[in-house]
Design brief:
Elements (H helix, E strand, L loop, with lengths): L11 E5 L10 E6 H15 L2 H10 L11 H7 L2 E2 L6 E7 L2 E6 L2 E9 L2 E9 L8 H11 L5 H11 L23 H17 L7 H10 L10 E4 L28 E9 L2 E8 L3 E8 L12 E5 L4 E5 L10
Antiparallel strand pairs: 1-2, 3-4, 4-5, 6-7, 8-11, 9-10, 9-12, 10-11, 12-13
Helix pairs in contact: 1-6, 6-7
């Protein structure tokens, strides 16, 4: 087998064009085992993007290891930030959902003005934990260099009774891992593998193919050798009126929030690969400037429902004309 990534004769390994964690069910067999493993890092940038994580949680999409992101579990395992500076809470499961416990916070600032010593204190404790306030305050004072226990007790005796008890409300957000930029290479991998699937081995010698391959193999200067369009304005392809192409009986023929769509289309001398993933990502790639060199494939679209884990390979999409 001639590997389309390293371009060497090696044994094939099944490769998910779209990562399994994003519901990919279309597999090719033109990538060797070593390159398949290396492409895992390329996929990771796409899988870890916060938009991907949100949809994986909603659709319960497993990775190759069988794991589903668990932002709630991550929040339970460690304190999370609130909208108040320096204040964190720890979530815990209760019968009716979750409860948030404020994490104690003490900040004592000591300043000397002549013979006078001034201490500014910011102390936050949870209701019911007020009795431990001296302990938290002493810990902060020790970090300011006050070590004498009698001195610490005297300060606490003066400061604690003067503190005003206030109850505050705060909003919290469940943290989701973010990887804003790494998804671009993952989308490039999808476009590269689909361009080969549709245009064949001859495309591997195309200058744009060479540039994409260099990028996938770690060449950070190769991006200028291929074109990535802004797919934000691309309308999703509609299926034809052919009843055999109907998918879930929806107006668009499919539910965009749980469907991956890959298409190939031609405008003049250019072939384009367009990608829509779970209504989270979309992109268009120019894959050749010499469209006349490659015959039109029998099938030019793949639609994958990630919930039902099935795909339809259709020749039934309307041409997509990019906005100027």
């Amino acid at each position: 087998m001639y590997c389309i990534i390293c371009t060497q004769q090696k044994r094939p390994s099944p490769e998910h064009v779209i990562p399994r964690a994003l519901g990919g069910s279309f597999v090719i067999h033109r990538v060797c085992h070593g390159c398949n493993g290396a492409l895992g890092a390329v996929d990771r940038g796409l899988i870890d993007h916060h938009a991907a994580v949100e949809r994986r949680v909603k659709l319960q999409l497993e990775s190759n290891s069988g794991k589903i992101p668990d932002p709630i579990g991550d929040a339970i395992r460690k304190p999370i930030k609130t909208d108040m500076p320096n204040i964190k809470v720890k979530l815990a499961k209760v019968a009716q959902g979750f409860t948030a416990q404020v994490q104690p916070y003490a900040d004592a600032r000591v300043s000397q003005h002549g013979k006078d010593r001034r201490i500014n204190v910011n102390l936050v404790v949870a209701l019911g934990d007020e009795s431990n306030a001296p302990m938290y305050l002493k810990s902060s004072l020790r970090k300011q260099g006050i070590k004498d226990e009698d001195d610490l007790d005297r300060i606490c005796a003066e400061v604690i009774p003067c503190l005003e008890l206030q109850t505050m409300t705060s909003s919290i957000g469940i943290p989701i891992k973010k990887n804003e930029g790494g998804h671009h290479l993952g989308l490039t991998k999808i476009a590269y593998e689909m361009a080969h699937h549709w245009l064949g081995d001859a495309w591997l010698e195309d200058p744009i193919s060479v540039g994409m391959r260099k990028a996938l193999r770690g060449d950070k200067t190769a991006g200028g050798l291929f074109t990535v369009g802004n797919g934000s304005s691309m309308p999703r392809p509609r299926l034809t009126r052919n009843k055999a192409a109907a998918f879930d009986g929806l107006d668009l023929g499919y539910d965009p929030t749980e469907t991956n769509v890959l298409t190939l289309y031609r405008i003049e001398r250019d072939w384009f690969v367009c990608i829509w993933l779970l209504d989270a990502f979309n992109a268009m790639y120019t894959v050749t400037r010499s469209a006349e060199s490659y015959p039109k494939p029998d099938r030019d679209a793949i639609i994958m429902n990630v919930v039902k884990r099935q795909y339809l390979e259709l020749e039934s999409v309307m041409p997509v004309i990019p906005s100027p």
